[in-house]
């Protein structure tokens, strides 16, 4: 691939960055259950409300009795806009805007736990914590930097936990990850009116754009499967106080499929490496009274492993091409939540969280509109019967406005986009839990 051409990997980076504004940092999803959503996912590695607890710490399976099933879904509605100035050869030619670029989604989950004996408990989790989809639309003049992208993953995660004694438990599991994605960059449907004189003076250029407008410059789609693992432990300090720690390994995907578009000249086999980074969580749970408890979490994600983007298309380039240095940084998230047992059947939850950006101001560009986020959450749990319970959660996320700037040389002519991304996200989740 030539550096002076728009590449599909720029579109990939654009999409990965926008997902940061939809949920957690990078292209990470935090939404593993509606139970945790209602408390801003505070204390997850130290709490065992139902079988979903194993996804954030398999050691918590030892706190679940009998056989339990938990299933639900979370609806995510991001409202993300991008606005800025497009410049050619250093001269501003237009202000352009794309509204509501991140797609809404429903994130389902399913969990099963089974107590084998007083010390061993097995579990199965089917969920995801990575995914996003964006589309900027053909009326956005800067689509040549990326117009669409999607990443989706699903995990099948069997776990096993062992209760060492009344104080300590350990747990672990393997993660089978199925991922797919597509990325694209295209010409816009039209050009700014300020470029009309240039087109009128160059009929050949005008004819070429008329023929190619709205078409993909480069588009790539692919899928892959890979394995990972997780380990967790829990320490019951006293009947009222508990600490949990969990670590999830990185998972390396190679999205293999097809590349097409005007700049490729033909449909070609190709691939792109994508790492789902390692994560860790330290959580605590404190029962302050019969009715009131508080819980906290500190999360870390190894986003510094995402330092560059490379694409491999053998029939187009002999070697992997370094598209862009990303220079992401490790991300941290801190959350504080509370649970109030209003009645024997009704529990009320709330939480607040702060999620830091995975890129600093120096490296933030159009392709990486990463920004800090603040979560405000409310939730409730209702014990319908001795065996059946329901949970609901609602969260509103404030995303800090983030500036961006990107540039490329097209036929030795510098083209740049300088602007800002802004937006917010709301989430609504429901969970059903049954004990046999």
Would you write up a description of this structure?
- The chain is mainly β and 436 residues long.
- The protein has one domain: Outer membrane protein transport protein (OMPP1/FadL/TodX) (Porin), CATH 2.40.160.60.
- The chain is built from four helices and 20 strands.
- The chain has helices at residues 8-22, 34-37, 196-201, 203-212, and strands at 67-88, 91-98, 105-115, 120-127, 131-135, 148-163, 168-186, 216-238, 241-248, 251-260, 268-276, 279-287, 292-301, 308-312, 321-325, 331-341, 346-355, 373-383, 388-410, 413-435.
- It has a 14-stranded antiparallel barrel with strand order 1-3-4-6-7-8-9-12-13-16-17-18-19-20.
- Strand 1 (67-88) and strand 2 (91-98) form a beta hairpin.
- It is elongated and about 80 Å long.
- The N and C termini lie far apart (58 Å).
């Amino acid at each position: 691939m030539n550096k002076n051409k728009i590449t599909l990997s720029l579109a990939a980076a654009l999409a990965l960055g926008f997902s940061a504004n939809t949920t957690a940092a990078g292209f990470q999803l935090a939404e593993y259950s509606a139970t945790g959503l209602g408390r801003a996912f505070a204390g997850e590695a130290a709490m065992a409300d139902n079988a979903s607890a194993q996804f954030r710490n398999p050691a918590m399976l030892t706190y679940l009795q009998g056989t339990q099933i938990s299933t639900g879904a979370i609806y995510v509605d991001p409202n993300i806009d991008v606005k800025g100035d497009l410049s050619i050869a250093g001269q501003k030619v237009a202000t352009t805007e794309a509204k509501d670029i991140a797609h809404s989604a429903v994130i389902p989950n399913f969990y099963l736990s089974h107590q084998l004996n007083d010390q061993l408990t097995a579990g199965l989790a089917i969920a995801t914590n990575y995914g996003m989809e964006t589309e900027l639309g053909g009326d956005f003049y800067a689509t040549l930097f990326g117009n669409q992208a999607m990443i989706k993953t699903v995990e099948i995660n069997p776990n096993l936990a062992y209760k060492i004694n009344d104080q300590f438990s350990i747990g672990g599991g393997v993660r089978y990850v199925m991922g797919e994605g597509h990325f694209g960059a295209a010409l816009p449907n039209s050009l700014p009116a300020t470029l009309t004189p240039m087109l009128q003076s160059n009929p050949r250029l005008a004819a070429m754009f008329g023929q190619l407008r709205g078409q993909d410059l480069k588009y790539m789609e692919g899928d892959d499967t890979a394995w990972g693992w997780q380990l967790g432990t829990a320490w019951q300090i006293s009947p009222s106080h508990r600490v949990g720690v969990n670590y999830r390994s990185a998972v390396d995907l190679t999205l293999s499929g097809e590349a097409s578009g005007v700049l490729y000249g033909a449909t070609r086999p190709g691939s792109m490496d994508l790492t789902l980074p390692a994560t860790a969580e330290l959580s605590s749970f404190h029962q302050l009274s019969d009715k009131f408890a508080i819980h906290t979490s500190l999360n870390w994600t190894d986003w510094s492993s995402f330092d560059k983007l490379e694409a491999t298309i053998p029939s187009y380039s002999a070697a992997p091409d370094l598209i862009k240095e990303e220079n992401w940084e490790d991300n941290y998230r801190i959350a504080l939540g509370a649970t109030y047992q209003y009645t024997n059947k009704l529990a009320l939850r709330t939480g607040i969280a702060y999620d830091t950006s995975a890129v600093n101001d120096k490296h933030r560009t159009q392709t990486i509109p990463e920004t800090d986020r603040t979560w405000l959450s409310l939730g409730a749990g209702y014990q319908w019967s001795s065996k059946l319970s329901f949970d609901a959660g609602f969260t509103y996320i404030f995303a800090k406005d983030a500036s961006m700037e990107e540039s490329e040389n097209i036929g030795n002519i510098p083209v740049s986009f300088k602007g800002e991304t802004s937006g917010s996200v709301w989430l609504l989740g429901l969970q059903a839990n049954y004990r046999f």
